[in-house]
Design goal:
Layout lengths: L8 H7 L3 H12 L14 E3 L4 E4 L5 E3 L13 H13 L6 H8 L3 H15 L2
Antiparallel strand pairs: 1-2, 2-3
Helix pairs in contact: 4-5
Protein name: Transposase
């Protein structure tokens, strides 16, 4: 997903400075310029306000986070991306305490993120 070899967190944050850059990056990876509804892949999709979309056949709204590990999370994508980079960069397992410090979130949220990422990558 994050295809650059960053040397530091500062370099990483320069590459992904805000939420919108992260959304564009994820859209490019997931949809490659053709938005597909997670509810009906053959349906026409309408672009709505605020990075949302609407599936014509089901009438349901969705966004880039729908049906991904990021769904139902209030954490910004920038923190998710940083977490993925940190977890995959560590030679050994990263602790939830260290992840919470690096992401500037509480330890419970860090555990949630760590569990979702590990499940996704089957680590």
């Amino acid at each position: 997903m994050i295809n650059k070899n960053f040397v530091s967190q500062q370099e990483f944050k320069r590459a992904f400075p805000n939420e919108q850059v992260c959304i564009y990056h994820l859209e490019g990876i997931r949809w490659n310029k053709r938005v597909i509804s997670p509810f009906d892949p053959s349906s026409k999709v309408y672009k709505c306000k605020g990075n949302n979309y609407k599936c014509k056949s089901t009438g349901k709204y969705f966004n880039i986070k729908t049906a991904t590990i990021f769904e139902s999370s209030k954490l910004p994508l920038q923190k998710w991306f940083l977490a993925i980079w940190l977890i995959t960069s560590y030679k050994k397992d990263i602790s939830t305490l260290q992840l919470s410090i690096d992401l500037d979130i509480n330890q419970k949220s860090a555990l949630f993120v760590l569990q979702r990422i590990k499940k996704c990558f089957e680590i």
